[in-house]
């Protein structure tokens, strides 16, 4: 469907459904109006109860925001929630004042007020937007949406699909379980839920056609759930990570997606007409589940043999760090419970051993970076952990001394991931969210070219809120 057709269809749908008619984008412009407000959604399927959510434009996820690379965008966000909010345009390299961190880069948007975000996205790719105020609860109640910055020269595919994945903790009644900010969880894996949705719904099937080539944009919008996706009978080729093109490559078996990460893959649909193939998330081993199924149309293939058009995307204008002169700095991740795993400690395992490594039991922060704990969503008055002269090349050496996984996110920049545990990282990968396994050491480089105070934090929301956050300053 053309851009126009898509937008018209969705606005008339919203109007028909009696929802706020806020997805207003003047034809041919990069302008949106987005309303954050309570809504209801049918997450678990038609015969299941509805859920009270907080939503952008009345839908979970919110409407995909489509922008054009290098063209000014204007996004008006109106807050009709009963509490403060902001929007963070995750992964987009934008001016500091547009970054959406309350207290640090802008005042919070009060209930009833709005805020105008204006920036020109330098990079094409798959990004997303979410609140940076009361983040754990606001994201956990549904506030999230995709941002797609279109390439001038996209890869040739038959269809461009978006899967925004989200993880919910639902009660039998369909309501979202309260208890956001449980200190015990915060010191472990964070709030991992019990229901995963694909574009806001429990997914049965994704319809495909033999012979077609699909670009699939994967976004992990979970609070805490890490995903490892396996496509039975298919070999997805990774073409971009966190919105940044990489050398196209097949991932051995599964696509690893930490919270807030994005991976763009190309799938050649070479399955048999009429057959179904499972897409499984088996990150937590024994707790693996079927995310959806690729359901092949029984019709004959749309072409005899797969396309052999090239899969490489044009590179974005990222400054290449000069590794010879780069400043090198250690950032050590500390805290949390001893012993990793999913919810280790919850099932009566909370012995003295488990408690020992945890800093949070007395009500203090659970996590730290270089011995310092910044808590909440971001605020002013915290000395930056590091200050860089604008234009300097920087290598961060991220050391995970904890027993838990952490997707570490840097605002305002994208980092070239150089090595993991001493081994060079192939395929020229740039990331804004680097997933760290327990005890991992990762070297990541960037040019500190974007002036301002930038958050660096774990994107497991409970970890961020309880101390795994700091500020890097570019002057
Ligand atoms: Cu997507 Cu500071 O976060
Ligand atoms: Cu973390």
Any chance you could write out the topology, listing elements then pairs?
Blueprint: H1 3-16, E1 31-41, E2 51-56, E3 65-68, E4 73-79, E5 88-90, E6 114-119, E7 125-130, H2 135-140, E8 145-150, E9 159-168, H3 183-186, E10 195-198, E11 206-208, E12 213-220, E13 227-231, E14 237-241, E15 244-250, E16 255-257, E17 262-268, E18 276-281, E19 289-296, E20 327-335, H4 352-356, E21 367-369, E22 386-388, E23 392-400, E24 406-410, E25 415-420, E26 423-424, E27 430-431, E28 433-436, E29 441-448, E30 452-458, H5 461-465, E31 469-474
The structure holds CU-O-CU linkage and copper (II) ion.
EC number: 1.10.3.2
Keywords: Metal-binding, Oxidoreductase, Plasmid, Signal
Signal peptide: 1-26
Report what the structure shows.
- With 475 residues, this protein is mainly beta.
- It folds into 3 domains: 3-153, Immunoglobulin-like, CATH 2.60.40.420; 160-296, Cupredoxins -  blue copper proteins (Immunoglobulin-like, Sandwich), CATH 2.60.40; 327-474, Immunoglobulin-like, CATH 2.60.40.420.
- Helices cover 7% and strands 38% of the residues.
- It has helices at 3-16, 135-140, 183-186, 352-356, 461-465, and strands at residues 31-41, 51-56, 65-68, 73-79, 88-90, 114-119, 125-130, 145-150, 159-168, 195-198, 206-208, 213-220, 227-231, 237-241, 244-250, 255-257, 262-268, 276-281, 289-296, 327-335, 367-369, 386-388, 392-400, 406-410, 415-420, 423-424, 430-431, 433-436, 441-448, 452-458, 469-474.
- Strands 20, 21, 23, 25, 26, 27 and 29 form a 7-stranded mixed beta sheet that branches. A 6-stranded mixed beta sheet has the order 10-9-12-17-14-15, with no helix packed on it. Strands 11-19-18-13-16 form a 5-stranded mixed beta sheet, with no helix packed on it.
- The site of CU-O-CU linkage has 10 residues, from strand 5 and strand 30.
- CU-O-CU linkage binds next to strand 5 and strand 30.
- This is Multicopper oxidase protein.
């Amino acid at each position: 469907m053309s851009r126009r057709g898509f937008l018209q269809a969705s606005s008339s749908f919203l109007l028909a459904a009696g929802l706020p008619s806020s997805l207003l984008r003047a034809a041919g412009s990069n302008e949106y109006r987005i309303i954050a407000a309570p809504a209801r959604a049918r997450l678990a399927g038609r015969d299941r109860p509805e859920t009270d959510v907080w939503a952008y434009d009345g839908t979970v996820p919110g409407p995909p925001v489509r922008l054009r690379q290098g063209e000014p965008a204007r996004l008006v966000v109106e807050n009709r929630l009963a509490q403060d909010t902001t929007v963070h345009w995750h992964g987009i390299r934008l001016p500091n004042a547009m970054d959406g961190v309350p207290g640090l880069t802008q005042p919070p948007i009060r209930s009833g007020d709005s805020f105008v975000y204006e920036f020109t996205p330098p990079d094409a790719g798959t990004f997303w937007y979410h609140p940076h105020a009361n983040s754990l609860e606001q994201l956990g109640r549904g506030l999230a949406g995709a941002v797609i910055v279109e390439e001038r020269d996209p890869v040739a595919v038959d269809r461009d699909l978006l899967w925004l994945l989200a993880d919910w903790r639902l009660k039998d009644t369909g309501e979202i379980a309260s208890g956001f900010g449980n200190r015990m969880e915060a010191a472990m894996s964070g709030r991992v839920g019990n229901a995963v949705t694909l574009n806001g719904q429990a997914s049965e099937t994704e319809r495909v056609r033999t012979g077609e080539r699909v670009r699939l944009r994967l976004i992990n919008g979970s609070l805490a759930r890490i995903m490892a996706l396996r496509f039975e009978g298919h070999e997805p080729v990774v073409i971009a990570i966190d919105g940044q093109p990489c050398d196209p490559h097949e991932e051995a078996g599964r696509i690893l997606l930490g919270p807030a990460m994005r991976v763009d893959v190309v799938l050649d649909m070479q399955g048999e007409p009429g057959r179904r193939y499972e897409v499984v998330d088996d990150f937590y081993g024994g707790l693996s589940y079927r995310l959806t199924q690729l359901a092949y149309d029984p019709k004959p293939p749309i072409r005899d043999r797969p396309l052999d058009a090239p899969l490489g995307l044009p590179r974005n204008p990222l400054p290449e760090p000069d590794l010879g002169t780069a400043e090198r700095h250690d950032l050590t991740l500390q805290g949390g419970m001893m012993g990793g795993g999913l919810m280790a400690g919850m099932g009566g395992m909370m012995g003295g051993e488990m408690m020992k490594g945890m800093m949070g039991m007395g009500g203090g922060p659970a996590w730290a970076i270089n011995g310092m704990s910044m808590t909440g969503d971001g605020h002013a008055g915290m000395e930056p952990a590091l200050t860089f002269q604008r234009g300097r090349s920087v290598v961060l050496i991220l050391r995970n001394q904890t027993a838990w996984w952490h997707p570490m996110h840097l605002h305002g920049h994208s980092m070239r991931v150089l090595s993991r545990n001493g081994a060079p990282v192939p395929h020229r990968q740039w990331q804004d969210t680097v997933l760290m396994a327990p005890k991992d050491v990762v070297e990541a480089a960037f040019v500190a070219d974007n002036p301002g105070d930038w958050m660096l934090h774990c994107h497991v929301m409970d970890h961020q809120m309880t101390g795994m956050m700091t500020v890097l300053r570019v002057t």
